[in-house]
Amino acid sequence: MERMQQIVGRARAAFNSGRSRPLEFRIQQLKALERMVQEKEKEILAALRADLNKNGPNAYSHEILGVLRELVLAMEKLPSWAAPQTVKKDLMTLRDKAYINYEPLGVVLVIGAWNYPFLLVMQPLIGAITAGNAVVVKPSEVSEKTAQLVAELLPQYLDKDLYTVVTGGVPETTELLTQRFDHILYTGNSAVGRIVMTAAAKHLTPVTLELGGKSPCYIDRDCDLAVACRRITWGKYMNCGQTCIAPDYILCHPSIQSKVVENIKATLKEFYGVDVKSSPDYGRIVNKRHFKRILDLLEGQKIALGGETDEDSCFIAPTILTDVSPESKVMEEEIFGPVLPIVTVKSVDEAIEFINRREKPLALYVFSNNKQLIKRMIAETSSGGMTANDVLMHAVVPDLPFGGVGHSGMGAYHGKYTFETFSHRRACLVKDLKMEVLNKLRYPPGSMEMMHL
Amino acid sequence: NPFVGLVSHLRASWLSGKTRPMEYRVAQLEALGRFLNDKKQQILEATASDLGKAPFETELSEILMCKNELHETLNNLSRWMKDEHVDKTMAMQLDSAFIRKDPYGVVLIIAPWNYPIHHFLVPLIGAIAAGNCVIIKPSEVSKKTERLVAEALPGYLDKDCFAVVTGGVPETTRLLENKFDYIFFTGSPPVGRIVMMAAAKHLTPVTLELGGKNPCYVSDTCDVSNVARRVAWGRFFNAGQTCIAPDYLLCTLEMQEKLLPALRKAIDDFYGPNPQESLDFGRIVNDKQFQRVQRLLSSGRVAIGGQTDEAARYIAPTVLVDVQPSDPIMQEEIFGPILPIIIIANMDEAIDFINSRERPLAVYAFSSSDKVVNQVLKRTSSGGFCGNDTLMQFALTSLPFGGIGNSGLGMHHGKFSFDTFSHSRGCLKRGMGRESLNTPRYPPYSQKKFGVIRATSKVTRKSECTLL
């Protein structure tokens, strides 16, 4: 308890010193982070391989490239993001200065997740620094090597008091959450999301919760099935299915179910070869606990493809389940693994109804040549974000906010939205001390002439 | 749970999609406008009964300001509802990337008693504009207004999508056990915590408009009589029961000596020699609040006012001097017509004093010097800020209204209300063709493929020059 108090206290004192506020300072810290990523690329990639069996180009493009892009964007845009925003004035305020000032919140907490362990602490950290805050970073202990590396590296490049890394598991995080922060950004699951928000409520701390859910993927009969299945295969089995916006399950007409399986099978061969286990590009489940959890979901299911596992290496082959019942276990929780259930539906109406009966997902996917159908899907469902005719890609459009809704989360970030998440928009009105004439109209004794202004 | 039926009914209406078309939202908003027009007299009477509100104040804060928000919303709704298209990377030039504003679903608005119409109606405008179904929970403390809203409002709005729930703490607690898709709460920080904890159980996002002690710094260089008028107006409006009222004043002893006569004059100009007889000065809402505020009069020394009348729940416009930071009046938000003055030596001390306390909903600074005003603005943190006046930052619909830290989270007013009650959904529509362009992203991974990805998706620093 004392240790956490000290860490947060130091960060608060550092923030109160005011040194994180000048734009030059923030850019300097961002430049240092850029240097860190460039100089320690090898170490970062090694940690990602150790934690998740992510290989070079894959890890680079999914975790490092994204971080470098955010850094460049932040350094470029900071002056415009941080500039006061003048607002439209009315008759009463014509002669005044009215604007919105973007101000740092203070000391913020970033809790990362294990599936993209580097990206998910760095991206929020970048935005928090850009917005002028002090930051406490708590990487996921499940991705141990990356957590250790981040804890070693950040103090070597950044201001040690303003930006701290706290490592540890549930007990340490629980302790940390008793401290007072000015914003908490948490990436993880809904159950812990509730715990974070409850802890935050005690201090009236605003939160951004990037959670998960079961992201549905509807495949229309009218679509280029080969292309659709290719894209779905890519998004589903990337990082061994451990992606919060992976297509979790498929909804399609029974008549195309077997074709879907065939197409995915062919694509898998193309991507990972005949022996998936020996492909350097296919990941592993992060640990035995999750391995067992996913294995459990296969019980009683019709395995159309895959199903092979190896506990020692936490390997689960790309798997497809067909004719899955909506009430089965695999349809209850977010799979977060390389298991793809197909639930058949007779029409898009049924699909929409099915989706709406369940918790709002983080992402929603629809494949169709029919533009009207796509419009309907978007208009009649709710999700954090969505992509039509592809998967995952809405998350890489730099100017789209990335976040959930309902059980999949609240708030959003990425790019400018991270800056806004970690800023307070302060309404500022500066009037003249003279010009009292106008004011007289509002003073008592009550005047009805004022009403007609 | 007594509200399960109601919430499910609204949720079913929500799922039917009827609140989504613009025409529907406009119709409901226009009905709200009619409510304000038709029931104006009843609103004046109810707020006069509940709070002794001057008709002028009611017209201004409860009717005119609501109408401004309504008109602003109706004027801009179609633009706000449109998909917001965004810039794309080189690889996505032929795609469509936009932000869709989705309603949340069934939202709950909990309103306080001090501006009992305004504080539910303004968020309600935003919630309807954003396409939601709404349950409104007006405050049971402003009894007559609660009854008016419960009886009259449903007649104007679609009963399947909008409902008013009445009751006190037990009813609100049970209401909060239900799942809502958004909760908008205006009230005190302790209750704000309770609301947020209840919301956390369902992962419901919230906006909390809370309060605090809004400091008002008056520098030595200023037009004393203008300052006195503007401060007195802000402090004594609605008998001090305003979340953004200047709560306490910070100035030098010198300035205090100049301000006191000016404040005396302002109060006299506004309310006459006996404010209890003025039709323009309000009353404390109930006995509990009256006793609470009355107790605060024992801090320091009464320099102006100080008279009370328990039966009428009247507390005179009062200024206290010789107040110490440790006095009771400096420990809680006053929410009454008392202005304590705290003496500081200079601006730096004032800023330090402000920064040593919880961040308030508003910071006020008065000075003829722009520099001083800007210094106070720059070196403090608060929900909002107003230089050389009080309350007015609230009236401009283009400015967001919200707190920070203990004074709240989230914001509303104008477009910010619409945004608060909307989920900004990131959408990307791609075509199924040009699949060959996707090849670099697929396994088997290679450095060469990676080079292509990097080239088509990277963002370069404009200041750097890369020689290929």
Automatic annotation (TrEMBL), chain A:
<dbReference type="GO" id="GO:0006081">
    <property type="term" value="P:aldehyde metabolic process"/>
</dbReference>
<comment type="similarity">
    <text>Belongs to the aldehyde dehydrogenase family.</text>
</comment>
<feature type="coiled-coil region">
    <location>
        <begin position="23"/>
        <end position="50"/>
    </location>
</feature>
<keyword id="KW-0443">Lipid metabolism</keyword>
<keyword id="KW-0812">Transmembrane</keyword>
<protein>
    <recommendedName>
        <fullName>Aldehyde dehydrogenase family 3 member A2</fullName>
        <ecNumber>1.2.1.3</ecNumber>
        <ecNumber>1.2.1.94</ecNumber>
    </recommendedName>
</protein>
<dbReference type="InterPro" id="IPR029510">
    <property type="entry name" value="Ald_DH_CS_GLU"/>
</dbReference>
<dbReference type="InterPro" id="IPR016162">
    <property type="entry name" value="Ald_DH_N"/>
</dbReference>
<feature type="active site">
    <location>
        <position position="210"/>
    </location>
</feature>
<keyword id="KW-0175">Coiled coil</keyword>
<keyword id="KW-0472">Membrane</keyword>
<dbReference type="InterPro" id="IPR015590">
    <property type="entry name" value="Aldehyde_DH_dom"/>
</dbReference>
<dbReference type="InterPro" id="IPR016161">
    <property type="entry name" value="Ald_DH/histidinol_DH"/>
</dbReference>
<keyword id="KW-0492">Microsome</keyword>
<keyword id="KW-0597">Phosphoprotein</keyword>
<feature type="active site">
    <location>
        <position position="244"/>
    </location>
</feature>
<dbReference type="GO" id="GO:0120553">
    <property type="term" value="F:farnesal dehydrogenase (NAD+) activity"/>
</dbReference>
<feature type="domain" description="Aldehyde dehydrogenase">
    <location>
        <begin position="3"/>
        <end position="425"/>
    </location>
</feature>
<dbReference type="GO" id="GO:0005789">
    <property type="term" value="C:endoplasmic reticulum membrane"/>
</dbReference>
<keyword id="KW-0560">Oxidoreductase</keyword>
<dbReference type="GO" id="GO:0006631">
    <property type="term" value="P:fatty acid metabolic process"/>
</dbReference>
<keyword id="KW-0256">Endoplasmic reticulum</keyword>
Automatic annotation (TrEMBL), chain B:
<dbReference type="InterPro" id="IPR015590">
    <property type="entry name" value="Aldehyde_DH_dom"/>
</dbReference>
<keyword id="KW-0560">Oxidoreductase</keyword>
<dbReference type="InterPro" id="IPR012394">
    <property type="entry name" value="Aldehyde_DH_NAD(P)"/>
</dbReference>
<dbReference type="GO" id="GO:0005737">
    <property type="term" value="C:cytoplasm"/>
</dbReference>
<keyword id="KW-0520">NAD</keyword>
<dbReference type="InterPro" id="IPR029510">
    <property type="entry name" value="Ald_DH_CS_GLU"/>
</dbReference>
<dbReference type="InterPro" id="IPR016162">
    <property type="entry name" value="Ald_DH_N"/>
</dbReference>
<feature type="active site">
    <location>
        <position position="209"/>
    </location>
</feature>
<dbReference type="GO" id="GO:0006081">
    <property type="term" value="P:aldehyde metabolic process"/>
</dbReference>
<feature type="domain" description="Aldehyde dehydrogenase">
    <location>
        <begin position="19"/>
        <end position="423"/>
    </location>
</feature>
<dbReference type="InterPro" id="IPR016161">
    <property type="entry name" value="Ald_DH/histidinol_DH"/>
</dbReference>
<protein>
    <submittedName>
        <fullName>AL3B1 dehydrogenase</fullName>
    </submittedName>
</protein>
<dbReference type="InterPro" id="IPR016160">
    <property type="entry name" value="Ald_DH_CS_CYS"/>
</dbReference>
<feature type="active site">
    <location>
        <position position="243"/>
    </location>
</feature>
<comment type="similarity">
    <text>Belongs to the aldehyde dehydrogenase family.</text>
</comment>
<dbReference type="GO" id="GO:0004029">
    <property type="term" value="F:aldehyde dehydrogenase (NAD+) activity"/>
</dbReference>
<dbReference type="GO" id="GO:0004028">
    <property type="term" value="F:3-chloroallyl aldehyde dehydrogenase activity"/>
</dbReference>
<dbReference type="InterPro" id="IPR016163">
    <property type="entry name" value="Ald_DH_C"/>
</dbReference>
<dbReference type="Pfam" id="PF00171">
    <property type="entry name" value="Aldedh"/>
</dbReference>
